[in-house]
Amino acid sequence: MRPKKLTISAFGPYADKTEIDFSKLGEGGLYLITGDTGAGKTTIFDAITFALYGRASGEVRDPAMFRSKYAEPSTETFVELVFSYQGKNYHVRRSPEYMAPKKRGTGQTLRKAEAQLIYPDERQPVTKAKDVTAAVEQLLGLSYDQFTQIAMIAQGDFQKLLLAGTTQRGEIFRQLFHTGLYQQIQMKLKDASIARYKEYDEMRRSIAQYLDGVKTETASWQEAEEFDELKKIKFEGKLERSLELLKQFLEYGEAQEKELREKEDSLNQDIRKAEEAQNLVAQKRNLELKKKKAEKDLEELTPLLQLAVEVAEKYKDADHRCEELGIRIREKEEKLKKYQELEKLKKELETIEGKLETVSEKKEKDISEEQLLQKKDEEEKKRLSILADAGEELQKYKFEYDKLDSEKRSYDSCLLTEEEIKKEQKQIDGWQEEIIRKETQQKEELEQQKKDKALLDSAELELQKAETKKTEGIRKKKELEGLIALVKEFQGAYNATKEQQEKYKISIEKVQKQREVYQKLFQSFLDAQAGLLAQELKEGCPCPVCGSFEHPRPGILPKGQVVDQEILDREKQKLDRLENDANTQSVEAGKRKERQKTLWHQIQREAQELLHETEWKKLIPLLKEKQDQCEKQLADSEEEIRIAIERKKKKNETETWIEKLETEIVQLQEEKNQCDRKQAGLQTRDVENKKQQQITAEEIRKLIQKSLVAGNGEVTDNTAAGFERQIQDMLSCLSEKVQGKEKEAKQKQDLEKLIIEREKTLKELGRVINEAAQDIVRLETERKNKAQKVDELNEEIGEGGKESLEQEIKTQRKLYEELKESSRRAQQKLQEIRAEKERITAVVKNFEEQKKEIGEVDEDALREQYSRFREEKTQLSEKRKALFSVQKGNEEIYQKVQVRQTEMTAAEKEYAWIRNLSDTANGKLNGKAKIELETYIQMAYFDRILRRANLRLMTMSSGQYELKRQEQSKNQKEKAGLDLNVIDHYNGTERSVKTLSGGESFQASLSLALGLSDEIQASAGGIRLDSMFVDEGFGSLDEESLEQALKALNSLADGRRLVGIISHVSELKERIDNKIIVTKQCGGEGVGSSIRIQ
Questions:
Q1: pLDDT class for 5, splitting at 50, 70, 90?
Q2: Which helix (H) or strand (E) holds 7?
Q3: Taking every pair of C-alpha atoms in the chain, what is the biggest distance, in angstroms?
C-alpha cells in the first residue's frame, strides 16, 4: 500500500482544506516531516489511519477530537486518501461524527460519521463506516493493530518493548501475535491437575476408612498389634503392608473355618446316624398303624366292587344300541337336506319369474318410445331445411357491427383520455404540494433524531460495564452457592452421623435384650433335659448322668411348653443377626463421622478464602448476608443491563430511523423530479390524443355511409352529441340484426345436433329391444326347468313337515349321547375299584416286609446319644458363626479396597501425568527455568524479531552491538524466556539492555521496532507496505550514530519504499532532501496549521 494523495479538511490543527501530494516525494527513499511542536506532524499519519480504519494511530487520540477547533463552523471535517495497491488506485473518504451549525435556524446539530470506498473497477462503492473498514481490512490483509505496528513507529513506543521484562513483553506479544490461546491451555491444564488430585485424595481417604473396619480376631497378637499401629497413622504410605496383613488374616480365618467345618461334618454324620435310628423306631410304629388301616379299607371295598360289576353288566349291549341309533339319525339328516334344497329352488323360481315380468314390461315401453322418436325426427329435419342460409347473413352483420363498434371505442377512448389527462394534472398539482410538505417535515424529524442519538452514544459502554459487573456477581454467587451447598452437605452429614449413632445404640439395646432372652431359654432347655431324663430313671438302675442307683431328688419337667433344640437354635440365630447388624451400624457411624470431619475442613478452607470467617455460629448469618448482597448486586446489574440494552436498542432504532429519514428525503426529491417528468408527458399526450380523435371521427362517418342498414347514408347532425347519438342508433340497429341472425344460427346448430343424437338413441333402442327379446326366451326356459325340479322334490319327500323331522333328529341324538356316557362311567368306576383293591393289597404286603427289616431298637440309648451330639453341634455353630462374621466383613473390605486401590493407582498415574504436563506448561518444573507454554511460543516470535533487528543494529552500531534473548533468569522464582540482553562485540561481554546509553538505547529500540514491524508484516501473509513512518527519537544520537541510523532506514526504504521521519533534529533537515514542512499559524491570514512539500 502506497499513499498517493491525502486531503485533510478541518481535521486536528488543520483549519482549512489541506492537500499532500506524496507523488512529489518520489517512488522511494527517505523524506522528513518537520515543523513546530504541536503543529500536526503526527496528525498526517493519524489522518491516513483514520481514512483507512476510522481510528487514530495512538491510544490518546479519540475520533471525537478530530474536529479542528480552528475551523470555520461551515467548513466540513473529512479526510480523503488516494492510495495504490498492487498497481491499482483506490479512493477512500471518511468524516468523523461532530457538532455542526444547523442549515436552517440557529443552534447546532450532530453530523453523523460517514465513509466511502471507491474501487478502480466496476464494483459498487462501499458507503457505511463499518463496511468500509471491513473492505479495507480485506483489501490490505491487515487489521488496524497490525497496520499501526507495521506502518508507524509512534511516539513513546521506542523503548517500551526494549526495556520490558518477560511479563510485560509477553503481554505485548499476546496482543500482537494472538498467543492467548496457549495461556488458556495452561490454565485448563492447571485446573485439570487440581481436579485429578482431589479425585486421588478422595480415593486414598476412602481406602483408609474401609481399613478402619478390619477385625483382627483371626490374627496372631503380633500381627494384630501391627495392624492397630497402622490404623493410628491412617495407613499413610503403608497401604501395601495393610493389604498383606489383611490377606494373612483372611488366610488364617480360612484355615480355622476349615478345621471347624471338618469337625462339624464329622458330628453331622453322627447326628444323621442317630436320627436315622430314631426314624426307624417311628417308622415301625407308623407301619403298624398303616397296616391296620389298609386292612380295614380292604374290607370296606369288597361290597363296592360287587355293586360296580352288576352296574357294568347292565350296559353290556350299549354299543350295539348306539350304532343303531346313529344309522337312524343319519337317514333323517339326509331327508332334511332335501327339504333345504326344495326351499332354495322355490326362491330361485320366484326370482326368475320377477325378472321375466320386468324384462317384458321394459320391452313394451322401449317399442313405444322408438315409434315416438321416429315421428319427432321427421318433423325436425323439415325445420332444418328452412334455416339453411342463417349463418352467412350472420357473418355479414357481425363484421359491420364489430368494425363500427371498434371505431366507436377508439373515439370513446380519446374522449376518456382527455378527461384522464385533466384529472392527472390535478393529481400532480396536489402531489407536488404533498411532497414539499413531507420533505419539510422529514428534515425537521431528522434533525431531532440526530440530537436524540447524540444523547445515546454512551449506551454501548454502559452495557459493557453492566455486563462486567453482572459476570463478577455471577462468579461470586457461584462461589457462595458452592459454599452453601457444602454447608448443607455438612449439616446433612452431621444429622446422618447422629442418626447412625442412634441406630447403633438401638442395635446394641436389641442385642442385650436378645441375649437375655437366649440365656433364659438356654436355662429352660437344660431344665427340660433334666426333667426328661428323670422320667426314665428307675430304682436300682444307674443314673445316666451321675451313675447313682438311688434317686432321692429327681429333676422335674417344667410346666407349659418345653424348650427344644430347634427353638434354642432359632433364638441363637436371631442373636447372631442382631450382633452382626450392630457391628455394621458401628462401622457406618465411623464412616459418616469421618465424612463430617472432611466436609468441615473443606468448609473452613473455603470460608476463610471467601468470608475471612471460620466460626460456625457467625458463618451461617454471614453467608446469608453475603448471598443477599450478591443477589442485590445481580439484580442491580440486571436492571443496569436492561436500561443499557434499552438505550442501545433505542440508539440503534434512532440510527435506523435516521437512515430511513435520509433515504425518504432522497426519495421525496426523486418524486419531485417524477412529477415534473409526468407533467411534461401529459402535455404531449393531450396533443396526440386530439389528433387521434379527429382521425377516428372521420373513419366512423365513412362506415355510416356504407352501412347495410343506414336510411340515407349521411351524417345529418354534426354536433358532438348528435354525432354520438347517430353512432349509437346505428350500433343498436346492427345489434338487433346480429341477435336475430344469431338466434336462427343457434336454432340450426341445435337441430343438427339433436337429429344426430336422436338417430343414435333410435339405434340404441333397437339394440336394447332385441336383447330384451332374447332375455325373455332365456328366462322362460329357466323358469320351466326350476318348476319341474320343484315338482320332482315334492314327490320324493312326500308328506310330513320339516319341523317334525328336525325334532325327531334332536331327540334321538340326545338319547344316543346319554347312553354312551352312562356306559363309559360304569366301566370307569369298575376299573377304579379294582385298581384300588390291588393297591391296598400291595401296601399291606409291603408293610409286613418293612417291619421285618427294621427289627428291634433300644430307644433310651438313642435319645441320650442324640442329645450329646446336638449340644456339641451348637457349640461348633456358635464358633463358626462368629468366625464367619469376622471373615465376611474382612473379605468385603479386602475386595472393596482392591477395587479402590486399582482405581486409585489409575487416578494417581493420571494425576502424575497431568501434573507433569501442567507443571511443564506453566513453567513450574523443579530446577528448570520458569518458561510457560505461551512464553515458549512467544520466544520463537522473539527470536525471529531479534534476527531481523540485529541486521539493522549491527549496521547502526558499526558491528559493536547485537541483541540476544536471555536464556536463564537471574531468579528461579520469576518468569523467564523473554528477557533481553545485548552483546558488546568490542569487549566480548553480555549485559542487560538497560545499561545502554541514550543514543545506544535509541539505536536498539529502533532496530527492535523495525524488526517487530517486519515480523508482523511476515505473519500477516507476507504483505508489503510501500510506505511507513518513524516518529521522533533521533535527538539523542551523535553525528556518527545518526549517520548509521539513516543508512539503516535507507536500506529499509530499499529504493521502493517511502519512509517518513517525523523529527525536530536540525541535522536531518540537512541530510534528507525531500521534506514535508508543517507550519503553525497563529495570526495574520488565519489560525491552524498548513503544509508545503519541499
A1: very high
A2: strand 2-11
A3: 181
**What order do you get walking across the sheet with 989-992 strand by strand?**
961-965, 980-984, 989-992
Region of 1084 please: left (phi>0), alpha (psi -120 to 50) or beta.
left
* Alpha-carbon dihedral angle through residues 513, 515, 518, 520, given to the nearest 10 degrees: -70
- Write phi, then psi, for 127 (nearest 5 degrees): -115, -35
Q: How many CB atoms lie within 10 A of CB 46?
A: 24
Query: Which residue type sits at 248?
Result: Q
Nine cell digits for residue 840: 391296598
Cα(37)–Cα(41) distance, integer angstroms: 8
Q: Crossing angle, helix 318-386 and helix 802-854, to 10 degrees?
A: 140
What DSSP letter does each residue of 837-882 carry, written as one string? HHHHHHHHHHHHHHHHHH----HHHHHHHHHHHHHHHHHHHHHHHH
| Coil vs helix vs strand at 387 | coil
Q: Parallel, antiparallel, or unpaired for β 1086-1093 and 989-992? A: unpaired
Q: How far is the C-alpha of 645 from the C-alpha of 638, rounded, in Å?
A: 10
Given CA atoms 967, 971, 976, 978 in this order, what sign does their dihedral have?
A: negative
Please tell me whether residue 289 adopts helix, strand or coil conformation: helix
**Angle CA(1065)–CA(1071)–CA(1077) in degrees, nearest 5?**
60
**Residue 926 falls in which region: left (phi positive, over 0), alpha (psi -120 to 50) or beta:** beta
d(CA 874, CA 572): 9
pTM, whole model, 2 decimals? 0.42
- Grid cell, residue 557, equals 419337667
* Degrees, nearest 5: CA angle 372-376-381: 150
Ramachandran bin of 12, using left for φ above 0, alpha for ψ from -120 to 50, beta for the remaining angles: left
Give the other-Cβ count within 10 Å of 537's Cβ.
16
Kind and range of the H or E run holding 83: strand 78-85
DSSP code of 456?
Answer: T
3-state SS, residue 154:
coil
Calculate the alpha carbon distances from 431 to 223, 435, 849, 878 in Å.
113, 6, 136, 116
Residues 663-679 as b or e (16 or more Cβ within 10 Å = b): ebbeebeebeeebeeee
Nearest CA to 1070 out of 1036, 1044, 1041, 1046 is that of 1046
Sequence-distant (6+) residues with CB within 8 A of 953 are: 961, 962, 963, 1003, 1004, 1007, 1008
80, pLDDT greater than 90 = yes
C-alpha 487/C-alpha 604 separation (Å) is 10
C-alpha cell at 85: 495497491
106: cell is 440557529
- List the one residue out of 179, 168, 161, 166 whose CA is nearest residue 933: 179
User: Which amino acid would we find at residue 1030?
Assistant: V
Separation between Cα atoms, residue 788 and residue 558, nearest integer Å: 108
- Measured CA to CA, the distance from residue 92 to residue 47 in angstroms comes to 12
pLDDT band, residue 93 (cuts 50/70/90): very high
pLDDT score for 712: 42
Is the sign of the CA dihedral 949, 950, 951, 957 positive or negative? positive
Residues sharing a CB contact under 8 Å with residue 427, sequence separation 6 or more, in sequence order: none
Any bridge partners for residue 1086, and if so which? 1083
Cell of 791: 315338482
Pairs from 905-908 (Cβ < 8 Å, separation ≥ 24): 907/196, 907/199, 907/200, 907/203, 908/200
pLDDT tens, 365-411? 777 777 777 777 777 666 666 666 666 666 676 677 677 677 767 77
